[in-house]
Design brief:
The structure holds two protein chains of two kinds. In chain A, 0% of the residues lie in helices and 51% in strands. Classes of the chains: A mainly beta, B mainly beta. Chains A and B meet through strand 4, strand 5, strand 9 and strand 10 of A and strand 4, strand 5, strand 9 and strand 10 of B.
Chain lengths: 112, 109
């Protein structure tokens, strides 16, 4: 049974560019949450997707957007990248309103 | 002030020592999680608590809802326990987790 997978593992982008990160949830899970973890900080909630809709959003600008597909996988898109967007982006899957979240290995994004 | 505060920020111990990491939170919660993060980023869920105490191997987690405080204990610590330990709370009525900044534990042989 595959756990949560994320791609790519690492990514280097230039300021102003756009990036797409991908997440496949643990088998059976229908909900995907995205988190941003800056160096030395705890993760911060970006948003959560269920039934292909954004259900809840953290304090992130509209440059951060997402999508969930019918197979429950999800994408995180960030437009107009800033240096401050450099971070580890974590995806977690769960059952909707379930308390247990399973985390993926993360995508490390570096913006230069 | 952060909604979730952990202490200490850094902890160095000798192999075999008993370890305690503390977490205090300021909001009403429906659950509290203890997570482990190794270098490289991957996060593993250790415990999810809404009351009382849980034990798994050498790890013990407790929570006091009235005092809004939780502790993670590691008995007979081992160098492989070296990692960042993160406390996260799920606010009542919310889907999101709010995380502490983590406690970096180093266990020396």
């Amino acid at each position: 049974d595959a756990g949560v997978t994320q791609s790519p593992t690492h990514l280097i982008k230039t300021r102003g560019q756009q990036v797409t990160l991908r997440c496949s949830p643990k088998s059976g899970h229908d909900t995907v949450s995205w988190y941003q973890q800056a160096l030395g900080q705890g993760p911060q909630f970006i948003f959560q997707y269920y039934e292909e809709e954004e259900r809840q959003r953290g304090n992130f600008p509209d440059r951060f957007s997402g999508h969930q597909f019918p197979n429950y996988s999800s994408e995180l898109n960030v437009n107009a990248l800033l240096l401050g967007d450099s971070a580890l982006y974590l995806c977690a899957s769960s059952f909707y309103r379930g308390y247990e979240q399973y985390f993926g290995p993360g995508t490390r994004l570096t913006v230069t | 002030k952060n909604e979730v505060e952990q202490s200490p920020q850094n902890l160095t111990a000798q192999e075999g020592e008993f370890i305690t990491i503390n977490c205090s939170y300021s909001v009403g919660i429906s659950a509290l999680h203890w997570l482990q993060q190794h270098p490289g980023g991957g996060i593993v869920s250790l415990f999810m608590l809404s009351s009382g105490k849980k034990k798994h191997g050498r790890l013990i987690a407790t929570i006091n809802i009235q005092e809004k405080h939780s502790s993670l204990h590691i008995t007979a610590s081992h160098p492989r326990d070296s990692a960042v330990y993160i406390c996260a709370v799920r606010q009542g009525g919310s889907e999101k987790l709010v995380f502490g900044k983590g406690t970096k534990l180093t266990v020396n042989p």
